[in-house]
């Protein structure tokens, strides 16, 4: 298979050794953690945990426009993109009794009609995003969160929950991958201070939770959800309004390129709602960013950013799907070839 895209030495995956055991462990994927910062305490789910009422609903979302227009970090080909969906869905569907897809017509044609992934429920509500700027690749996820009416776990299609992942222990009000540092100095890939300044200066809408937050902790949303559905829907409402409202467009034009601000709206705002004055039961797969690189017992892999273009991971992704889900692999191969 040909190599695409990024330098493989720069690619990092959380739990990458579960997919590709020969790849050395990494210690970072570009984040900035300033001296003296400590992540907030979260309740970490561990192997063997059993909750009285665990989350039973797994949700995926796919707003196809950003993918088709190549916004953000992407799989290097449609073939590998399809394999990621197959593996993410097939693994998680063994752990969660109900599976849900929130997408648009194009996504339905790909994932259900062509790849034949048997989701229990399918919503085409993301057709309503026609006309939205595809630079906001997280917008489809936010709409999917807002649509839920019962406890759920949203899973990105570059996240693989291997056998042994402690799904039966998930019952937090908010569930996410791990806390992340979002420095107020805007030194990292979060830029909360720049966003707040631009919105204030143009008279736009800035949620008070965002405005007043000083905790510098975000939540990585490779997986996200929880049992506090009203809180999750409120969070999604605020995030969608920040992105879509006419009153904020002048600020976003000033801050372009907009791809850089998806994480602020999706992950930083969620941290502000959890730790900015209210007491929230936050449950994570890992207690910190660093833990994600060394704790393979969680049976969790997230191919972050350029890891999706690393040939070492891609070859093993193809091998896993071919060996464990051969019928699905053959469907993808017939659609796209093997590269």
Layout of helices and strands, plus pairs?
Elements: E1 13-14, H1 16-19, E2 43-44, E3 57-62, H2 64-68, H3 78-92, E4 98-103, H4 105-114, E5 121-123, H5 139-147, E6 152-155, E7 159-161, E8 174-181, H6 192-201, H7 208-212, E9 217-226, H8 229-244, H9 249-255, H10 262-275, E10 282-284, E11 300-303, H11 311-324, H12 326-336
Parallel strand pairs: 2-10, 3-4, 3-6, 4-5, 8-10
Antiparallel strand pairs: 1-11, 6-9, 7-11, 8-9
Short description:
With 339 residues, the protein is α/β, with parallel strands linked by helices. It has twelve helices and eleven strands.
Write a structural description.
Residues 58-330 form the DUF6734 domain. InterPro entries: DUF6734. It holds the Pfam family DUF6734. This is DUF6734 domain-containing protein. With 339 residues, the chain is an alpha/beta fold. It has a single domain, classed as Spore Coat Polysaccharide Biosynthesis Protein SpsA, Chain A (Alpha-Beta Complex). Helix content is 35%, strand content 15%. The chain has helices spanning 16-19, 64-68, 78-92, 105-114, 139-147, 192-201, 208-212, 229-244, 249-255, 262-275, 311-324, 326-336, and strands at residues 13-14, 43-44, 57-62, 98-103, 121-123, 152-155, 159-161, 174-181, 217-226, 282-284, 300-303. α4 (105-114) links the parallel β4 and β5. α3 packs antiparallel against α12. The N and C termini lie close together (6 Å). Mean pLDDT is 92; it is low at 1-10.
């Amino acid at each position: 298979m040909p190599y695409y895209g990024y330098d493989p030495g720069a690619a990092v995956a959380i739990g990458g050794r579960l997919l590709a055991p020969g790849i050395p462990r990494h210690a970072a994927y570009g984040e900035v953690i300033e001296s003296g910062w400590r992540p907030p305490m979260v309740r970490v789910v561990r192997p063997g945990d059993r909750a009285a009422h665990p989350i039973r609903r797994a949700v995926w979302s796919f707003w196809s426009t950003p993918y088709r227009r190549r916004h953000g970090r992407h799989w290097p080909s449609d073939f590998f993109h399809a394999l990621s969906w197959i593996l993410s869905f097939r693994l998680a569907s063994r752990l969660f009794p109900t599976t849900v897809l929130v997408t648009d017509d194009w996504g339905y044609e790909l994932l259900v009609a062509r790849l034949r992934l048997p989701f229990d429920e399918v919503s085409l509500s993301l057709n309503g995003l026609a006309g939205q700027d595809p630079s906001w690749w997280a917008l489809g996820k936010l709409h999917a969160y807002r649509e839920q009416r019962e406890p759920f776990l949203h899973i990105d299609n570059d996240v693989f929950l291997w056998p042994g992942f402690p799904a039966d222990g998930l019952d937090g009000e908010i569930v996410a991958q791990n806390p992340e540092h979002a420095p107020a100095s805007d030194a990292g890939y979060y830029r909360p201070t720049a966003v707040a300044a631009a919105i204030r200066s143009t008279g736009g809408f800035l949620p008070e939770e965002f405005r007043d937050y000083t905790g510098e902790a975000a939540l990585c949303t490779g997986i996200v959800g929880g049992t506090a559905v009203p809180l999750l829907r409120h969070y999604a409402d605020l995030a969608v309004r920040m992105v879509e409202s006419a009153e904020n467009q002048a600020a976003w034009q000033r801050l372009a390129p907009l791809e850089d601000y998806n994480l602020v709206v999706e992950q930083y705002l969620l941290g502000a709602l959890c730790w900015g004055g209210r007491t929230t039961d936050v449950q994570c797969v890992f207690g910190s960013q660093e833990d994600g690189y060394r704790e393979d017992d969680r049976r969790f892999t997230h191919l972050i950013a350029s890891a999706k273009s690393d040939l070492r991971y891609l070859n093993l992704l193809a091998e896993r799907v071919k060996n464990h889900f051969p019928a699905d692999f053959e469907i993808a191969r017939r659609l796209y070839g093997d590269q």
